[in-house]
Amino acid sequence: MTKHQLFLVARQTYTNRLKTFGFWSIVLAPILILLVIGGIVFVMDATKSTEKPTVAVVNNASLTTYLKQNKAVGARYKNMPSATKAKQALKRDKIDGYLTSANEQYHLTMSTDADSLSEDTLQSTINQYYMLNQATKLHLNADQLQTLMDPPAFDSTVYNKNGKSSAGGATSNTANSMLAGGLGIFIFIFLTAYVGMIAQEIANEKSSRIMEILLAVTSPGVQFFGKLLGVAGLAITHGLVYVLAGGIFAIFMPKNQYIDMVRDMLAGVDINFAIMTGLLAIVGIFLYMILTAIISAMINDLSQVQQAVSPITYVAMIGYILSFVLEGQPHNLLINVLSYVPFISQTLMPARLGLQYANMTDALIALLLEVVVLIFLARYGLRVYKKNVLTYTDGNITKAALLSLKGLFSKKTIED
């Protein structure tokens, strides 16, 4: 196996796939989906009604004055002498709702087609009004009332295996959950895309009988590793496109509440976490591609690609699914053990890191185990590939693949 032939096959695989619509559809589809969602949100924000709802306050002039002076609730207020007149005005669409008060109880009635009104903000404003009235009755001055209303100082810290973190509370947990879920989806999409791609690459040449010609001028090792390097280059290009798109988006996209929310969520992601997650994902993708190349050597034609790839996809789904149940079971023994297992750790371990259930030492152990299995598959999987690449199997591909993979642990196969 010469380096020139190896890089020639890798370059040919890379350039041929790079020019196809299928590759760019995989790359651009998530970006287009995000742009469409962003466009819909932008149009909805731009076209939403800015009209303030009109709320009648029944027979409570002081509350009406207080609500008018307080700008927290975006609404117009008017006083009405009775609930009967307020109901009549609501039926005639003269007002959007009315607020009644009796025996220190308040009730808001709003029309179903009324413009939006924040009930939480209105309730908070009424609470302030009620406390002011109570303070007046108790003859409290402004300073005394402010002392009574000031809440005690409270913050929280989260201790994880890396040490102390200032992030804590529900906001931090929500952000970490979203990050862990996003990582699981992103890695799973990469895996399924490039597992199918390497299977099609081998099946194309084998079904058209070109493989016999290629192996006449090159070795199976050149074809095996060349195709893997070419598809790996596509995966890296795919990732770089997303990094570039994210950078452009962050620089030129105007600020809004959704972008600020994403920035806040990613603010706590340090460089060590990003590097470790990237390494786990890349090595995991390489593992799946080598396994797929070994199994794809037994495919007779393109119609069998899905049959061969399905079991591999099912294995990848284990980590993907468990990453969503991880938050509710941080000390589950099975999940913790599986997060170190190659073919699953590339999804589970980053999720555990994101949720602060694991430290960098745990991730490094998972990465080393992935590398060990990667070296084993690359070395001994080639021998299984050589044995099957020119063999045309009848019957069930999955069963034949499982039988063939036993050759990885066969002394006879290793010594050939």
From TrEMBL:
<keyword id="KW-0812">Transmembrane</keyword>
<feature type="transmembrane region" description="Helical">
    <location>
        <begin position="305"/>
        <end position="326"/>
    </location>
</feature>
<keyword id="KW-1133">Transmembrane helix</keyword>
<feature type="transmembrane region" description="Helical">
    <location>
        <begin position="232"/>
        <end position="252"/>
    </location>
</feature>
<dbReference type="GO" id="GO:0005886">
    <property type="term" value="C:plasma membrane"/>
</dbReference>
<feature type="domain" description="ABC-2 type transporter transmembrane">
    <location>
        <begin position="23"/>
        <end position="378"/>
    </location>
</feature>
<dbReference type="InterPro" id="IPR051449">
    <property type="entry name" value="ABC-2_transporter_component"/>
</dbReference>
<feature type="transmembrane region" description="Helical">
    <location>
        <begin position="363"/>
        <end position="382"/>
    </location>
</feature>
<protein>
    <recommendedName>
        <fullName>ABC-2 type transporter transmembrane domain-containing protein</fullName>
    </recommendedName>
</protein>
<dbReference type="InterPro" id="IPR013525">
    <property type="entry name" value="ABC2_TM"/>
</dbReference>
<keyword id="KW-0472">Membrane</keyword>
<dbReference type="GO" id="GO:0140359">
    <property type="term" value="F:ABC-type transporter activity"/>
</dbReference>
<dbReference type="Pfam" id="PF12698">
    <property type="entry name" value="ABC2_membrane_3"/>
</dbReference>
<feature type="transmembrane region" description="Helical">
    <location>
        <begin position="21"/>
        <end position="44"/>
    </location>
</feature>
<feature type="transmembrane region" description="Helical">
    <location>
        <begin position="273"/>
        <end position="299"/>
    </location>
</feature>
<keyword id="KW-1003">Cell membrane</keyword>
<feature type="transmembrane region" description="Helical">
    <location>
        <begin position="178"/>
        <end position="198"/>
    </location>
</feature>
